[in-house]
Write a structure and sequence with these properties.
This protein has 416 residues and is an alpha/beta fold. The model has no long low-confidence stretch (mean pLDDT 95). The longest helix has 24 residues. Strand 1, helix 1 and strand 2 form a beta-alpha-beta unit. The chain is elongated. The strands form four sheets. It has a seven-stranded mixed beta sheet, sandwiched between helices. It has two domains: 267 residues, Crotonobetainyl-coa:carnitine coa-transferase, domain 1 (Rossmann fold, 3-Layer(aba) Sandwich), CATH 3.40.50.10540; 84 residues, formyl-coa transferase, domain 3 (2-Layer Sandwich).
Amino acid sequence: MQLGEIGNPDAVPHGKPLDGVRILAAEQMQALPFATQLLARLGADVVKVEHPVHGESGRGSTPAMTDPEGRSVGATFLRNNFNKRSLGLDLRSDAGRDLFLRLVPRFDVVADNFKPGTMARFGLGFDDIAAAHPGAVVMSISGFGNTGDSPYQDWPAYNSIVEAMSGIYDYMRPPDGPPRVNPMGAVADITAGLFAVIGILAALRHREATGLGQYIDLAMFDTTVALADLVVNFQSLGIPRNPVPAHFVITPVRCSDGYVVLQFVREHQFERLADLVGHPEWKDDPRFAERTGWGLHLADVILPAIEAWADGRTRVEIADALAAANLVAGPSHTPEEVVADPHLEARNMVVAMPRTDGVEPPVLVPGNPLKMSRVAEGPEKRMPWVGEHTAEILATELGLDADELARLRSEGVITD
């Protein structure tokens, strides 16, 4: 899908579910920007507040491209900021804080993902925002929350820190080795972002019923523990970390062109596998009378037999054969295969944005996985340059004239 294209065009007359919802987001990096991008794709008007000179910290990530002014635009920013407007505003200045508070009553949601206490120190905490706009839904995302008595409240946090603290790294750690950290990117950030969307939508619905705004305090540690739910649950049931022997099998299977990942967790699935790979005798083998036998004999019996059966066949052929037997498997794709995958193309799940620095291949970001029959997809708009919409926003929302904008610009309060 290209920028500006529309998926499901027949749904355009129905509008989008969040048309009219307005979000003022003092945001950086991934957790909150991921959330507000999803809300923007659903129709919300998102104004992104960032430093007036260098923008938010995600712009400094790598790899990167350059914008038309030659400034770096990092990958974290590129994939989390479609369909937003940028307000370049220095919140450390008195004038910047005043402008922010004057904007607050114009928005339904005010959100940040700074270290706990940062917005309060700016004079922009929940009490300050609620005084300016009692109906505001205020959202804060941080590592360990802005409220309560967490012993970690003053700790800064990145994605991998709260993932480690959730116990999931240790749960999957080899008995004789260190944990494998950050196994698949910013999962904790994205999880927090998804919970943020749920919280914001719930609070807006609650406001419809009660007329009241409220504060949503989201701790990434909490949301990651919720994601890694088996850690707490299995511990309470007496199942040790990384149990051996396993009561289920998740294994790669070598094919002629790579690997398929196969998973079976129930007896009837093991029986189907035994028949498919030509070993029906496994169904009566006492070694496999209990599920623990699958893990004990995976390496010496089961996997060699599966790979002998798979020898010379491609990943797709193997996945097709396993699926035909109602077994759960899929190819382990390379990144190049993911971006060219026909399923993702058919469902508009890869969005291409032309680069602005003379490099031919476009920047690719994931599309919106929410497919709604009465909501059109797109048109997607590129991410904003630093402060690109500052003058437009301040003139439209607060009535600032050209002279006042020029003064604020000369004082370093804003940029555009």
